[in-house]
Amino acid sequence: MDTDPYAGLEGRRDEGRPAVVTVADAPDPAAWAARHREALYRIVASEGAVLVRGLGLADAAGAAAVLKVLGDDLMSEREAFAPRWTYDDRIYSSSKWPPNQPMCMHHELSYAVEFPATMAFACLSAPTTGGATALADAGRVLEQLPSDLVERFEREGWLLTRSYNEDIGVPWAEAFGTTDRSEVERYCAANDISFEWRGEELRTSQRRPAVLHHPADGRRLWFNQIAFLNQWTMAPEVREYLVDVYGPEGLPFNTSYGDGGEVTEDVVALINKAYDSVTVAEPWRAGDVMLVDNLRTAHSRLPYDGAREVLVAMANPTTRSV
């Protein structure tokens, strides 16, 4: 039995880079993706992610067609933390985030009851510099963290608090896909989210596990957005402004220990250092596609200059018990 995950494809993984498969000729990118879909998922199972180079995607319609072929049961996003625009049914832009600021390592929708097992990306326009979607192995991240910190988060989980309003972040109607408050309340009740209305503002909190076991092999993974959605990850001037205007309880998002204890700046730095120690990256080229195991592999976005257009699909929904 051939155990080479790259069998039948021209691919490799070099130090400091994700797995890369090179396509020599693909006049019909969607047909190529359909033909090699099983092989690509075999590489993802082995390596955690794979970047496909050489498909020559020329427009959003072609990119969406490839993403729909590669993704099973695409998800509609709920509880977004940053704006996106929609290209096609369940095909989105990457999150709008200041180009000069990094988007820190995270697992997509790790704070939700239903989250994607697979992320699929397609690059139509690569930035002049920077802007890579960097990757980090969540099992290796866990190994880098102090055992007492991991034990506390395993015991208590982590708490995400959010304030939705029209001035900062994503308004609640956009995040939940409805202007009907009763629908929002039903969603929160079904998804173990505590909520409170303060006039037009919605405040929520939800406690989630910080560590999970991969369903394929049982490996323990650091799976959360504790550092990314914490107040200390914001640019200092942004945090100071928001605290001054809205108060510490009115931040668009913040994280804490499961018992409500503060996750301090030094802990956020420690978590980000663990991510940095195992991060790999490959600069985008126009036409690239990437598949990522969202459970096993965290992703980030590096700062960049120039135009950057990356489409995103969230696939293979996984539901945790509440």
From TrEMBL:
* Organism of origin: Streptomyces pluripotens
Q: InterPro entries given for it?
A: AlphaKG_dependent_hydroxylases (IPR050411), TauD-like_sf (IPR042098), TauD/TfdA-like (IPR003819)
Tell me the superkingdom of the source. Bacteria
Ranges of residues in domain TauD/TfdA-like: 24-313
Its keywords, alphabetically, are:
Antibiotic biosynthesis, Iron, Oxidoreductase
Report the GO molecular function annotations: oxidoreductase activity
Name this polypeptide is given: TauD/TfdA-like domain-containing protein
- Cofactor(s) annotated in UniProt: Fe(2+)
Pfam families linked = TauD
Q: Which GO terms describe its biological process?
A: antibiotic biosynthetic process
